[in-house]
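Show me any protein, fold above all:
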Amino acid sequence: MSPIPHERLTSEGKKKNPSQESFLSNERGVTAVLVAIVIVTLIAMASFSVDLGFAWVTKNELQNIADAAALAGSQQLGVVYAALPPNQKEDLTRSLTSSEQAQVLNFVGQVAGLNRAGGLSGIAIDTASDVSIGTWDFATKTLTPTLVRPTAVTVTARRDGNVNGPISTFFANVMGISEINVAATATAALGPLGFVPPGTANFPVGISKRWFDEGHDCGDSIKFHPTGTLDGCAGWHTFTTSPANANSLRTILTDLKDGSYVSPAITAGQTQLEFTGGTVASVFDEMKALYDANKDPVTGTWDVKIPVYDSDDCGNPGGAITIVGFATATVTEVLEAPEKQIMAKVTCDKILDGRPGGTMVNGGMSPLSTIPALVS
C-alpha cells in the first residue's frame, strides 16, 4: 500500500491549502516592505523637520539682526540731523555727505557684527547691496532710495552663498539637500513725532485732527484767530493748567514772552491739554506780544510747534482733550483790531528732537522725530 500523505492542519484541525500558505507568506513580506518604507519616510520627514526648525530659528536670529542694524543706521540719520544748524535741518534739498553716509553704513555693520545667527558669530552685512538709505512713505509703506534728506534705512541680513554662507543641514542630506539659504529684511525710519520734552511746545494753540482729515496739504493756510470753522480749525489752550480761562492763559502768554514759562512734556496718546473753548479775545494783545517777541526781524514770521488734538470737527474745543500727534506751522501775520486775525501756514518735513509714536496725519504732514522706529 502506498503511504498516506501527511496533511497539514490548521489550529482548528482543518486542512491548510498550500496556495493559501504561499499567499499569506507573500502578504507578510509585502507588509514588511511597506512598514520599512513608511519608517524610512517618517524618519526622513522627522529629520527634515529638524533642519527646517533650525532654518526657522536662524531666520528669526537674522530678523533680529536686521531690525537692530536698521535701527542703528536710521538712528545715525537722526544724530546727523540733530547736529545740523536750523537752516540745514530744514533744508529739503540737502544730501548726505559721503562722510555721513559712511557713518550710517558703519553703524549698520557694527551692530550686525555683534550678533550671531545659525551658530555663526559676527554676521556681516553687504552694505553695497543689502543696505538702502532713502525716504519712507508712511501711506504706501515703501522706501524710495535717495541720499537727499533721507529718513529711513533698510537692511537685509542673510546667510547664503553671497554673504556669511548658507546653513548646513543635519539630516536633509538623505533627501539631497545639504544647505539652506536664509535671509531677513527690516526697515527703520524717523517716525512721526510722538513726544516732546519740557520747554519744546512754544505756542498755546492746538490744531484739530479734522483739519488734516479734510485733505489739507503742506503749505496750506490756517487761522489761529478766529477759530471754529474749517479755516480756523484750531483752539487755544493752557497746556495742562486748569482751569483753562483767560487769567490762566494771560499768565502763560506773558511768561512765555519773558522766557520764564517752561511748557510741559507732551506725549501723544496720553497727554491731555486744557482747551479754553476756542480763542479768548481778551488776551489777543498778549498773543500778539508773544508773536512780536519771537518773529524773525527780516521775514516777520515765527515757526511754532503745535499739538494736534483728537477731534472729528472744527468746532471750538473746550476742556481736557487728548493729544494724538504734532504739527509745525509758520505764523505769517497777526492783524490787530478790528480784524484781529492770526494767519499761519502748516509746514511739513520738519525733523525735531523727540521720540516717535504720534499719528502721521494726512499721510506725511507730521514732523519727524530724530529717534527712529521699525516700520517694516
Remarks:
- The chain has two domains: 34-189, 198-352.
